[in-house]
TrEMBL record:
Keywords: Signal. InterPro entries: DctP_fam, TRAP_DctP, TRAP_DctP_sf. This is TRAP transporter substrate-binding protein. Pfam families: DctP. It comes from the Bacteria.
Amino acid sequence: MHHFARLAAGTAIAVTMSIGAASAQTVLRSSDTHPDGYPTVEAVKYMGELLEERTDGRISIEVFYGAQLGEEADTIEQTRFGVIDMNRVSMGPFNNLIAETRVPSLPYIFRSVDHMRTVMDGEIGEEILATFEDYDLIGLAFYDAGARSFYTSERPVRSIADMEGQRFRVMQSDVFVDMVSALGANATPLPYGEVYSAIQTGVIDGAENNPPSYESSAHAEVARYYTLDEHLIVPEVLVMAKSTWDRFSAEDQEIIRQAAKDSVARQRELWDAAEAAALETVLAAGSEVIEVDKQPFIDAMAPVYEKYVDTPELQDLVARIQATE
Ligand code: GTR
């Protein structure tokens, strides 16, 4: 599987072929770690349908789902190099690279999913999207990933005290390592695909994710205590390799941008349904969903803000998000 993934990645360059003399067809290769049918995968497919319609079939998208092109952090590198044309990823793995992405990745920065949507749909979201260009990527749109919560295999987290000494997998971002430390626990950054067996073998005590990921990754099978502390509402981002982008005319770029934006409403609709369904599924399969007092978790995050919101620009960004109704 791993070998195949590498091969596939090597061939994932936009294929442009001539059909007759006047027209050419471009199939954009887009990566996603999630399985077929997951809201993000379906939303990018939908964007592809819009593109095909609006370009009379000149431009389309093929989604390589289920981490066929590699684990998320690696696919980001490959997208920056232009080996992969498009990628739907969490903002988390960008944190160490792009300072601005740390802000929407801060624990409890958003008061609710609605607050996140308002902020990311507005001026602040546009500013953050624009920062990707300095890193060889074009930010096209933000998708939802709901709220992430902790889950554990042996010791349920019923209050912040139960975090003490537990070992959690986090995404490859220093922000999340410090977030977990601030809660009295230990963080182990690992690729998503390694989490299931790491929990099963007891290398870690649990992880953290939103309900659709907790369910579709089968982590719920090995970590049945799901604590609704909702520490992160970190948006996801759809990016295109700048080298791919630069091959399109200004007119086509506009069509691509618009199709990406037009896929957001579809993604959110699918997301809301998937989230409700995932919680039902895990409950039916024997997970315990635990309500917890969030305030001690919120209070514990002060050192994380101090460390990562360390320039006047980032402080301003945080203040503006907090001031958004
Ligand atoms: C999911 C997210 C993925 C990936 C995964 C993870 O919620 O949609 O892109 O980042 O979490 O934890 O690695």
